[in-house]
Each structure stands twice: as structure tokens, then as C-alpha cells.
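Fold it.
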Amino acid sequence: MRPAPSVQFETMQPQHLDAVTAIDQQARAYPWQRQHFADCLSSGYHAQLLMNENRVLGYFVMMKGFEEAHLLNMAVAIEHQRQGYARIMLNTLTLWAYGQNAQWLWLEVRASNTRAFDLYTTHGFRCVGSRPGYYPCANGLREDALVMNCAIQRQ
């Protein structure tokens, strides 16, 4: 068994947008455009990279609201998936939200994305509704989003 690589988080900056956009384009059929990420940075959203040395393994983008935080986008590079990095990012974004005094985490996930749904469920998220036709699909069709939330436990 090989040792796990050392990872750290780094704040997403404009110079990272090409790498982040490339990961998003590989990870999903309908990725964000580079400008979406740039707009998030301009808006002051919490955007973090999961790094191994100078390599971006994944990222997440969070929006803070009143007593809540909303996960807008999260992905792990294809070659680094199924190695526990998404769980590391979920734990980290939960700690950040806790530090921001958020009571709830919110997100939307494609109804067909069972892998992500299962990950979120094991993290404590539950499905509380849907957004019909939220996501684009092939041939101009649309797919529903499942709305999920997770209470942030206060000790």
C-alpha cells in the first residue's frame, strides 16, 4: 500500500481559473465556463483548491448566506476520483461554514448523479425537495435537481 499524498487547501485565485475550468470540463457533461468561476471570485465567494504540491486535485465554491452556506460547485479531477478527496473537501467546507456561524449547508445535485447523491447522504445531507428542469441535458432537454441540506451541529 502506498502512502497517501500530502494535501493542503489554497484559496482559488484568478491564475488558477484555467486549471479549475479544465477539471470542471472533464468532470461533468455541462461544465461551468471560466467566467462563472471568475464571477464567483469577484463576488467574494469562498473558493478553495485541494492541492498536492503544485497540482490541483479538486476545488469547491461556496456562497455564504444568513445562517447558511450554499455549495455552488465542487469537483475532483478525474484521475484523482475515488480516493477520498471529495470527503476531505466536504469536511473542510463544513468546518468553514461552522466557523461562519452557518446553521445549514445547502446544495443541488443532478437527479441522475447517484454517486454524488450517495456521497452527500453519507455526509449527513438529506433530500428536501427538487427543482424541476434545473440542469441542461442533451437535445435541449432539462434534468431535475435534488435540493439537499445538512444541519451543522453545534456543540
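The beta strands are 8-11, 46-52, 55-65, 68-76, 104-110, 126-136, 142-151.
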